[in-house]
Amino acid sequence: MSNVWTAIALAAVANFVLKAAGPVAFGGRELGRGAQKLIALLPAALLAALVVTQTFADGRSLELDARAGGVAVAIVAIACRAGLLTVLALATVTTAALRALT
Hints:
Helix content: over 70%
Strand order of the largest sheet: 1-2
Distance between the termini: 29 Å
Number of helices: 4
Shape: elongated
Strand content: under 5%
Radius of gyration: 18 Å
Oligomer: single chain
Largest sheet: 2 strands, antiparallel
Structural class: mainly alpha
């Protein structure tokens, strides 16, 4: 298991523990608005970090290959409000085409 996956697993466990311990510790009181916003944004931030490191990192070096092209096409498709299956298909075809050309 790589360091990235270990960090993600630890963050997931910590998130679960915090969510489980919250009602016990606060006894019916609610978290502050800032803490609620932070907790709501954590999954998206962790997923984005995983995508970036798995796409552009190869060990300790920066790697720009076909995966980067696929992610770029997916970002453009999302910005154009394409459906999820369309985004996945475009990214997959782009990555496969770039790998075939190189």
